[in-house]
Write a structure and sequence with these properties.
Growth Hormone, Chain: A; two-stranded antiparallel ribbon; 612 residues; 62% helix; 2 domains; 7 strands; 25 helices; three-stranded mixed β-sheet; mainly alpha
Length: 612
Amino acid sequence: MSAATPAEDATKAIEPQAVPCYYEQETVDEKCADKVIPATKLNTSTTDLDCDGQEPTEEELATLPRVSGPIDWAIYTISFAELCERFSYYGSAVLYTNFVNRPLPEGSTTGASHGTTSSTPGALGMGTKAAQAISLINQFWAYLMPLFGAWLADSKLGRYKVIHIAIAVCTVAHVILTVAATPKVIVHSDRAFACFFIGMFVLCCGTGLFKANISPLLAEQNRDTRMRVEVRDGKRVIVDPAITNSRIFLYFYFAINIGAVSGQISMVWVEKYVGFWLAFLLPTALFLTCPVVLWSQKKNYILAPPTGSVFSKFVKMMMYVMRKSESMLKPNWDLVRPSKIAVASRPAWMTYDDAWVDEVRRGLVACKVFLFLPVFQLAYDQMTGNLTTQAGTMELHGVPNDIIQNLNPISIVVMIPLFDHLLYPGLRKVGIQFTPIKRMATGFIFASASMVGAAVMQHYIYLKSPCGKYANNDGCDPAPINVWAQSLPYILIGISEIFTSVTSFEYAYSKAPENMRSLVMSVNLFMRAFSAAVGQAFTPLSGDPLLVWNYIVISIIAFVGGVTFWICFRKLDGEEDKWNLIERSKYMGETEPEANTSHQAGILAEETAKKV
């Protein structure tokens, strides 16, 4: 074979080379696929190449505006299923405080207060501390169960099947709750409480299975996986999947709160005028539309298959890197990269690729961020227990005390379109990248402010109540303060949720390895369970005369938590693009037919080389 001459080499070097202009799930955009880019321009800005779909250069990342990609119709159908589930869950959970706290109104066998001398529905009469404890237990189990739901979906059944199992479990739970509130059972408080607690626990199990998987299923419908440059309205922009995901989760949260406010408002009126049994039964009807919607749209969904024992592989990898590294606090990730280990020396379980190691590192970074969420959640948890009780000590003017908390989801429903169309685009237009870490830190401050508002309100209730600092005593007339004065804490909590809770969902999905998305999302949700457990420590403050101190302490904790959160993760905030642009792993799990191919091929090649 003759060697090429220098002239031939030079000619070959400048021959045009075909370069794919668009990356999306390893496909090439049709309008760009036939473009040929000279080798002399391979490192040139895409502005000069006039080719949409290329990944942006560092210069373009710093200078071009960023926009969202399209949102697929399938995303809206999954959001509707979540709306139905939230109607079911919140339509029931909103009843728990009155059901446990207040006694059965005199002459009532359903718990309804209409037509009785009582202004508030009730059933068990166990008091404010018991009601707050039940609220926290409900919160704890509902957000502990996603860990199991994530494992079941990622390893065994897949997200779609687990969601349908969750729907069946929740339906059984609603039947049990309805039985607890029937006239023949509710008059026997011990039996009613036992039946109620079982129903609540079963509903938490179903909710956990559902929550761990519905948001990853939703985000998987976003077909944009990498940044790309496009021309829109004559201007070059970067289509950023992170912004697309942000919009997806904003409207997902919009659907959550439409379901929540619909369920809560309608059920508290049913509770007041008919009774608890119908209020527990009705949410089931809308919830049963979930499987109908999901079945009808299944052919349009991207459904990731279960991946086998990926979690066990993750555990083995973590144990290996901790054992081999000099410091457990700063693990050397090169020690678990297959490319850095001789094939014959590689453990049999090390069948992933190098990119999966980076994805796991990124997922662990997200989990570190989630460690601060219980601090934020402490403020949110006051809404479903103590603030509902607070409303019961104010002038209701015919409004059920547990309807006021609907100001929270209403404020979210109003604010989300404003955030999506005005606030976030406006900040991007003036060059401010309001990244996830900045948004979450801002949410902590709003949560703290909401608790300041609650503390001030509680102070004036004690000041004006006929019973002074014992405003929750049975038979005590309400303080002469209109219940709608409670609006500020609920609205501020709603704003804080948009900044922190919505962003945490987006962060969990975008930073998780593709085959561990349900698991990382469940870790995010588990932080809410941990918050409920921590909240039990504040139960002694959840009664008269200490409620003012309860709100003040939680406000201080939320503020300090937000400041500490920013100090800890401000460096990570500047690395957002770096983590979003890491190489995608091709390793999917043990159920992937080619999962072990590279490992086995490497061993075979090395053995062949030795023989030669």
